Fold this protein.
Amino acid sequence: MKQIFSFLGIALVASCMILVSCDKEENNNNNSQNNQQQYPDFNLDGFNLAHQWDIHVDDFNCPDFSATEKEKIQAGIDAGNLEISFYGGDEEDETNNYSGWILDILVPNVQTGNGMLVVARMDINYYNPQTQRLYLGTNEDNYDNNVSLTQDSKKIKFYWEAESERGGSEHSWIGGYINKADVRF
């Protein structure tokens, strides 16, 4: 009789181990599928960058910035945490085409451990979401061109490059993306 109970005990332990193993595999499969979530294509006509909060930047250049600003920007790109943000008046009022707003270039604030720290700024002379014309300026120069928008299953990607209006040899450019999960309309 003791052998039967021993055998049943071993069988019970083995059954529990199999059930736990199956549950872990199912959880791993669900986590994998959640990480691979794809989003439908958005209509990018009139897509408004000024309304977005998490605009990640992976390529940036402005010849007018100081060496210190450029180092901070490059460090943000290298760390994968450089962002830009449109800053100004009432975001619902697009009648002035965001003239007088500011484009903040941001990295995480490591001194306080929360929020973002502005490392550089450009003036927004004009931004029209319908045409995607973005006209930026600094104290030294102005740069004007259209933003190019594309998308894949997870991101809306943007790229803007403009020549120097003063005729400088360097262009200014910004490239990056917005995760589709974070898009605001």
About this structure: The chain has a mean pLDDT of 86.
